[in-house]
C-alpha cells in the first residue's frame, strides 16, 4: 500500500508578529513626527487686548501678537541692538523688547507690527521676531487724473 505523498505545511497567510510590531512602530513614529512638527510651528496669534485678557496664563509661552507701535515710545539701546517700544491696539498697550537682529526698514511710529516671542511675568513681551506691515499709500484720485 502506497501512502499518499505528504504535502508541505501551507505557509501561514497571517503576518508574523515581528512584522506587525515593526509596522506599528513605523506608524507611531510618523504620527509622533507629524504631531511634534505641528505643535512647534503652531503659534497663537493674538491682538494686544487679547493678550492682556489672557494674563498670566500665557506667560512663558511662544506667542505671536499684532498691534501698532505707540508714537513716541521707540527707544534704541546698545548701539541699536536693543529696541524697546510700546505696542497698542484699541484695548491696551504692552512694552516690547526686541534684541539683536536688523529692524525692518519700514518700522516706525504708528506702524502695524507683528511680534513673535514670549510674554514675561513682568508684563514685557520679549520678541525674537519683528515684522512690520507695509503701509498701503496708494492714491486712487491720482490714477484718475493721469
Structure report:
This protein has a domain at 43-132: OB fold (Dihydrolipoamide Acetyltransferase, E2P), CATH 2.40.50.140. 26% of the residues lie in helices and 32% in strands. The chain has three helices and seven strands. The chain has a five-stranded mixed barrel. The longest helix has 25 residues, at 17-41.
Q: Topology of this protein?
A:
Elements: H1 17-41, E1 44-47, H2 48-54, E2 62-69, E3 75-77, E4 82-89, E5 92-99, E6 112-119, E7 125-132, H3 140-145
Parallel strand pairs: 1-2, 5-7
Antiparallel strand pairs: 2-4, 2-6, 3-4, 4-5, 6-7
Task: Provide the low-confidence segments as ranges.
Answer: 142-146
| CATH fold-type name of the domain at 43-132 | OB fold (Dihydrolipoamide Acetyltransferase, E2P)
> What is the CATH class name of the domain at 43-132?
Mainly Beta
> What is the N-to-C order of secondary-structure elements (H for helix, E for strand)?
HEHEEEEEEH
Radius of gyration equals 29 Å
Number of strands: 7
Shape: elongated
Question: Given the structure, what is the number of helices?
Answer: 3
CATH superfamily of the domain at 43-132: Nucleic acid-binding proteins
CATH architecture of the domain at 43-132: Beta Barrel
What structural category arises from helix and sheet content?
alpha+beta
